[in-house]
Design a protein that fits this description.
mainly alpha; about 525 residues
């Protein structure tokens, strides 16, 4: 006989030591229902959130176009009371572009081995000058220059000698569209002016004064762009002025201009090398970034908003489509407009402060990337953040070249007036220069020493140089491949100086290389 405890369970009855199957099924059902309801709630909340933000209009009440116009007008200073001559400059550029297009279409000469193209006349302060690409060294360039001459276009630049107020109207819906106008044409016109200067100089002295006038046109063209909105305009203006300074030094090292022409060049530098404050272009960049944030973010009326995926396609086109990927992949997790602007002002304010220092007063680590360590949610800021170090490096280069070129012209003028070289730079003051030429990279003046022409590879009887960004006197040793690196703080400039009286383009035989 079986014990009661050993009898099999009755059908349909659960064992006494666990929950019934029906209870377990009820728990599973309620759990699934809860998950579904919660998921639907989250989806609904996200859809409502997206609908709320996407219905808002990008932008707020800040008139960034007015801010841009005001900062440019303020930079003009006392010249703002004069007539705005931008329309005349714009007409010259438009005419130049038309003449070049016609010349390219109708050029009768056969193509060279690489296929005919007009020489590259775009001045770039970051590139060594290639004489083979210049108009004075090419048949096509010479013919085009002659055609420009016959058109009277080059002579129309005479108004640069009197005009100081150049202010391009800012009327594009988005500021980014108002910053890249006519830059390429301006650079090509600068190359044509450079070629004209060389042609006048090659006359043997008879047209040196005219060459000095063209030198002023080049400086004035660069000056006009340095006063326009946006860092790219400042960089273009700096590149054109650097081209002018390099050209006049090259001229003087091969056959110095006559005394009256040298005096005209120095006077032109006094007239045309004024510039806005060093932080002007960076303050323009701040307005440009804020304008971009306005049209790429919504606005809740309180200065905050959400990144707009629809507008993001325009932003993506400006950033290699990085922003487009951001919108589709993680747009919901980006920093809000207010967070982005606050962080930008915090970081960029420090960069603007650094930009006001002279090269000699900056530390080696002054230009660490401030956005490198930011969280991923600030990805848009990483895309929009300007590169202040490039602009400041260009400003540093121009500052060094202005001081060096002015001193070189003064030395050559002193030589013509006194039939000898100055024993020291102090002899140039106050007869020619108003003050001693201080080295912007180190304490003291520019380095100047007389040399024996028979022992110098270029036959020079003096050397004039700056120690450059490494702040070390390397005995006038230059970087043969990229001579300007000591002027811009590049690592490759360490161990080198920048010598102002080096005849181009024969750098290889004229520089003290390893």
């Amino acid at each position: 006989m079986l014990n009661q405890d050993d009898s099999p369970p009755t059908a349909g009855r659960s064992p006494s030591n666990g929950p019934s199957r029906s209870t377990f099924r009820r728990v599973i059902r309620w759990f699934c229902v809860s998950v579904i309801v919660a998921t639907l709630g989250v989806v609904a909340a996200v859809l409502i959130w997206v609908w709320h933000w996407e219905r808002q209009i990008g932008g707020d009440n800040t008139d960034t176009r007015m801010q841009a116009s005001e900062i440019v007008s303020e930079a003009q200073g006392s010249f703002a009371d004069e007539a705005n001559r931008w329309s005349e400059l714009a007409d010259i550029l438009a005419t130049y572009e038309q003449l070049q297009s016609e010349f390219q279409r109708n050029y009768p000469a056969p193509k060279d081995s690489a296929g005919f193209a007009l020489p590259n006349w775009v001045p770039d302060a970051s590139m060594a000058y290639d004489p083979s690409s210049s108009p004075e060294q090419s048949k096509a360039g010479a013919e085009f220059l002659a055609r420009l001459d016959r058109s009277g276009l080059l002579a129309r630049q005479e108004f640069f000698e009197r005009a100081k107020h150049f202010e391009r109207p800012i009327d594009a819906p988005r500021l980014i569209d108002a910053t890249f106008l006519d830059l390429t044409v301006a650079r090509r016109l600068a190359r044509a002016d450079r070629a004209l200067l060389f042609r006048l100089w090659k006359s043997g002295g008879a047209q040196d004064k005219e060459a000095a006038r063209v030198f002023e046109w080049l400086l004035a063209l660069g000056r006009a762009y340095r006063y326009q909105f946006g860092a790219i305009n400042s960089l273009t203006g700096i590149a054109i002025q650097v081209l002018a300074l390099d050209t006049i030094r090259e001229v003087c090292m091969n056959r110095p201009l006559r005394e009256d022409a040298l005096a005209l060049c120095l006077a032109a530098m006094e007239r045309q090398l004024d510039a806005p404050e060093r932080d002007f272009a960076l303050r323009c960049e701040r307005i440009l970034v804020l304008d971009t944030v306005q049209w790429s973010f919504s606005d809740d009326g309180r200065g905050d908003g959400y990144f707009l995926a629809a507008e993001n396609f325009d932003l993506g086109a400006l950033t290699g489509n990085q922003a487009r990927k951001t919108a589709t992949g993680e747009g919901f997790f980006l920093a809000s407009k207010k967070e982005l602007v606050d962080k930008f002002d915090e970081l960029f304010g420090a960069d603007i402060e650094k930009s006001l220092r002279l090269p000699r007063d900056r530390t080696a680590a002054a230009w660490n990337d401030p956005v490198e360590g930011l969280p991923r949610r600030f990805r848009i800021l990483k895309i929009l953040y300007p590169a202040p170090q490039k602009l400041i490096a260009a400003q540093d280069q121009l500052m060094g070249e202005v001081i060096g070129t002015k001193t070189l012209l003064a030395i050559e003028l002193f030589r013509l007036r006194n039939n000898r070289l100055p024993g020291a730079l102090s002899e140039l003051v106050p007869g020619i220069l108003a003050e001693l030429p201080l080295d912007p990279y180190a304490s003291g003046t520019l380095r100047y020493k007389q040399t024996d022409p028979s022992e110098d590879p270029c036959g020079r009887d003096y050397l004039l140089y700056t120690v450059g960004s490494d702040r070390t006197d390397n005995d006038a040793k230059m970087n043969v491949k990229v001579p300007f690196t000591p002027l811009i703080g590049a690592p490759s400039g360490k161990g080198f100086d920048f010598v102002f009286n080096t005849p181009d383009p024969d750098l290889q035989k004229c520089l003290n290389a390893d």
